[in-house]
Amino acid sequence: MGGLIPNPHDQNVMQKLDATFSDPHLRNLRNRIRGPAAPEPHFFSDPGNARHLARISLRLRIHPNGPPPPTPAQLKARWQYFLQTLLTDPVKAAQNGTTVAEVIREALQVFVVTDDPKCTAITFCAIPDDGTLPTGIDYRADINPDPYQPRPAAPYVASIQLMCRIEIPPGVSAPDAGPDNGEVPPVQPNI
Amino acid sequence: MLMSSLGTVATQQDRSSERHALLRRLSETAGKVFPTIELRIQEDNASFHAQAYVLDGRQVVTLLGGLAFHSRMQKDGLLFTVLHEIGHHVAPGPRITQTNPLSCDCAADRWTVAEGQRLFSSHGMALDIRSALNEIELALSDLMPASDLKSERWCFDWTRRKMALTSALVQPVVECEFRKLHS
Description:
The complex is a heterodimer. Chain A is an alpha+beta fold. Chain A has helices spanning about 10-20, 25-35, 55-60, 70-85, 100-115; strands at about 95, 100, 120-130, 140-145, 155-165. Chain B has one domain. Chain B is built from eight helices and three strands, in the order αβββααααααα. Chain B has helices at about 15-35, 65-70, 75-90, 105-120, 130-145, 145-150, 160-165, 175-180; strands at about 35-40, 50-55, 60-65.
């Protein structure tokens, strides 16, 4: 993420995110979601059945995993805590009347599904608070283009930038997020 | 920024008028050489961290207070930091990821020694690379065990990075060393 002393775990998870949401993996993911024979049209957003960012991340095999220490299992558990707890905190991660996790999940639905094939890739980044986070708020997702406004007519690369007041505390962990209703096996499709 | 734990620097901070003047001078020089890049110093953030990013279409370089005011970081260490971060915006070569607009760390380092230091030197800010690396290493030693500096865990082996930065032969980066290590 462009730091003087880059943390390989940050870089590792960003590489995975950017790789998953660019071709060929993005096309494979879209093939699972869109089209008459698509096996799972509601991968990101299922009306009546809640979808959760932590579960989506798990299903896409996105988490930092090296180099040690900590162990890959500890890194994964810390990442799950980040998605399940920190980004879903109704106060510290409040955004647009919901939570940062929900804002990101809804943006993924728009960029991956609604704007297929116009959105050609999504890039991810985490940056330090530039002083614009309100008191009591630890995270904000800055998303470009705005998924709730008309997007460019031409093909575009979307960006999801997480502004952070705090890093994920060391030592925190959460078990893998459990299944969402309506999921279509396998748990981790090969994309 | 998410998983890192270099820590914060509550003590060992140099908040003197001289330090503020040095940071102003760095900022002014960066503004002259790269007017489109915005250098920010977040004085009240005690993390030892600097970062380049694009925000609302603007190219930004941010030094957090724990680094900008660390007493081990003097003119060369801070100048190298600023150049490295600018390098993320302007260096040619591999990107951090295939879709990210920023150059990878290897390319940013290489641009710093091959091009960046010359541009700043012409504005009266010469970089002594060995002094810079020594200052950064001393600051890092305060923040982490010395053994960590040799591991891949931080900046894909500080020793190797130092050798590349001080080598007489500066070769262009064709492949990001981090991606090579972890692909």
